[in-house]
Amino acid sequence: MPARAIPFSFLTEDRWLPRAHAHAARVARFAEPFVARRNAGRKHPIEDFLFTYYTHKPGQLGRWHPGAGTALVGHDAAERLGWKHYRALTCTEREAAGVEEDIAAVVLDLPAYAAEREETIRFCGIILRGTAARPPQFGCFGLHEWAMAYRSVKFGIRHEYLPLRLGADGTDRVVEEHRIRCTHFDAFRFYSPDAAPLNELQPTRATQRDLEQPGCLHANMDLYKWAYKLGPAIPGELLMDCFELAWRVRTMDMQASPYDLSGWGFEPIAIETPAGKAEYVEAQRGFAAEAAALRERLTTALAPLEAALAS
Which of these ranges, 28-37, 156-165, 211-220, has the smallest mean pLDDT? Predict the structure, then answer.
């Protein structure tokens, strides 16, 4: 009688440990400077964002996962039995795969994971597919950051340690002289109280699934959020691809903001000028193309999780 088919692939230590080590080094490049700044009580207006706005901690980010459907074999895999959502292979699975009894072998417990994370899995599917299906919009020019600083004399600003490049009055004029049509709730919710009514749309958490569109910088940064919320069912390489895109998007987002970051080594993108607008849109289109490929990869990785819910 033929051996029973196993619904996952296997990686031996010589194949998965180098990937885990490469992932840790990739994360350390971003996380170690942040931890050092945090311990010293210092801030960075760009490089802290992915660790302070998002909820995924550096230690969590540093853990590499193979994703759903891949078992890890080898003595070092035993550590993962103490990690959430992992389980040991059964005797039947070991026998079918030819894994010796004295060697650790672990895999994501997909049914248990899917049952616990059902709401997250379903919401991520709605957001990823809905965003991909809509036409991108490239006319926002990053004005959400300006709207957050609108009438700063009255309301103050979020980044109180940064000067405004055009001053308070100049920042207010830019807001008042432009059409503001932000589609992203998690940007809109930080608008100053006087700026919120100026936005042509009034996004809410409930309408997020209807308004997200693939040209939006924040929607594309949030691919990192959806990736880590689906962890450890998402491969570490895909998680870090999303992280690094979000890092570069955040850099451009702040360069186009009303803040003067020249002292930090970042030249402004002067979106109040025609040349600045053109520079912004060119970069925005490039990020949208990168994000589209990542969104497709995330949707593909999501499919077995959705299938587990349906089984």
Answer: 156-165
Torsion of the alpha carbons at 45, 47, 53 and 56, rounded to the nearest 10: -160
What is the residue whose two structure tokens read 């924040």?
218
For residue 300, with 0-12 CB atoms within 10 Å meaning exposed, 13-18 middle and 19 or more buried, which class applies?
exposed
Q: Could you read off the pLDDT of 214-269 as tens digits, one per residue?
A: 999 999 999 999 999 999 999 999 999 999 999 999 999 999 999 999 999 999 99
CA atoms within a 13 Å half-sphere pointing along the CA-CB vector of 61: 25
In sequence order, the 6+-apart residues with CB closer than 8 A to the CB of 166 are: 173, 174, 258, 272
Q: Judging by beta carbons within 10 Å of its beta carbon (0-12, 13-18, 19+), is residue 280 exposed, middle or buried? A: buried
**80-90 pLDDT, tens digit each:** 999 999 999 99
Taking CA 274 as the corner, what is the angle to CA 272 and CA 276, rounded to the nearest 5 degrees? 65
Distance CA(195)–CA(203), nearest Å, equals 13
Structure tokens at 67: 């994703």
| 246, 216 Cβ separation under 8 angstroms | no
Q: Looking at the whole model, is its pTM more than 0.90?
A: yes
Which two structure tokens, joined as six digits, stand for 92? 């039947």
- Place 95 in a pLDDT band, splitting at 50, 70 and 90: confident
Which residues lie below 8 Å from residue 120, measured CB to CB, with a gap of 6+? 229, 230
| 52-61: burial string, b at 16+ Cβ within 10 Å, e else | eebebebeeb
Instruction: Supply the DSSP symbol for 199.
Output: S
State the amino acid at position 46 in one-letter form: I
Of the candidates 97, 116, 130, the residue with the CA atom closest to the CA atom of residue 308: 116
Quote the pLDDT of residue 51.
Answer: 97
